What does this fold into?
Amino acid sequence: MTQPAADSRPYHHGDLSRALVDAARRILETEGPAALSLRAVAREAGVSPAAPYHHFKDKGELLEAVAHEGWVALDKRLTEARSKATDSKDRMTGLGVAYVCFARDNPALYRVMYDRSRDKDSLPEQMKEEGAYCQVRDTIDERTGGTVSPIDLELATIAAWCAGHGLAEMISFKQFAPLKEMLGGEEAFLRAVFEHLGMFAKLDQA
Amino acid sequence: MTQPAADSRPYHHGDLSRALVDAARRILETEGPAALSLRAVAREAGVSPAAPYHHFKDKGELLEAVAHEGWVALDKRLTEARSKATDSKDRMTGLGVAYVCFARDNPALYRVMYDRSRDKDSLPEQMKEEGAYCQVRDTIDERTGGTVSPIDLELATIAAWCAGHGLAEMISFKQFAPLKEMLGGEEAFLRAVFEHLGMFAKLDQA
DNA sequence: ACATGGATCTGAACGACGTCAAGATAATCT
DNA sequence: AGATTATCTTGACGTCGTTCAGATCCATGT
It folds into this structure.
């Protein structure tokens, strides 16, 4: 009874895995990805360096849990952006801007989400199964009125995703600063780049 | 005179920095980026763990040298691709395909080139000053016959680069395997995605 | 010719890291 | 209650990046 009342405190610490993921996210936000060591996470959670191994088989598995939360958060942001835009024309661009802004606002988390030092050639299932990826696909499908073959739809989604991811990784390059100013802010810059991509031109023509 | 004749052997080892970069690239190719420790590089070069510090101020500086060579190699590949395509229409797509193929064929090197754990928000000058970036820009300018404003040209280049980089990072995801087969190979898949991007649609309309 | 000096390498060491094995402790089960 | 299982700590191992004091080698000036 040394701990304050918690909903369920099944064991010594009380949902340590939850606390570890939170600690990891805290470190990511405050000190960046370079400082994200397993020992640091344990320290931040007030626990010995070996404790995490009872909840995650190794560091990678902890990072995977963190990444998972990132995908959920991204999903939420995209849903908001999608419901906000009433104009079907700008909905795609809005989705793209929201995506890149998420990466800009959570750079460390975004890095962990795409970190492939654990699973080399597979993207998180959560992304493809029922997550952000599907939102993009659905938006494209919506906009084209479902007149597009499944293969073309898949290709267009991949294309859009690549463009967004590429831009997300480059947005913080300081070389673009003058261009951003010239266009009147970062969001305007994003929109301009997306317009130049002319995404879905092929679909529009068809 | 214990060493075989070398062109210039100014000091004990004879151009150790050169040997270190080579060793690093060898390790990258054979064991991947995870195995690329400074000590491993020194070991591979047959030298003590502290020796590299007389040629590079830290590990990051060695990686920068490796990345630099990567950019040079990429530049070369893009030049080849550009000179090969005679059809001005397909030249852009060809450039994109060449870019992604470079990333696919040198995944570890490509990762080092874009590794931002050292310099957070700045891309290598070599890329922008007179390298691959300019090749893309020039190709776009060529194709549009120089009728494009400098700002639009810059934006289109950024857009193209983002698309290429995004695709380069995703190309190896195994989730795309069935799609690749359906389209008749990886290159066909790449071309299809690039077509769906409809890059430069805006420029074409103008 | 030979000493001086600076560049280059070695060896040993430090702290931090990921991980594991053995023991202690606390919750659960019977 | 006693036995069992899950959880956490302690301590250790090997590896890593980095530093520092010395050893070694080369170029140079006298």
Remarks:
- Residues 10-13, 16, 47-51, 54-55 of chain B lie near DNA strand C (CB under 10 Å from a C1').
- Chain B touches chain A through 46 residues (CB under 8 Å).
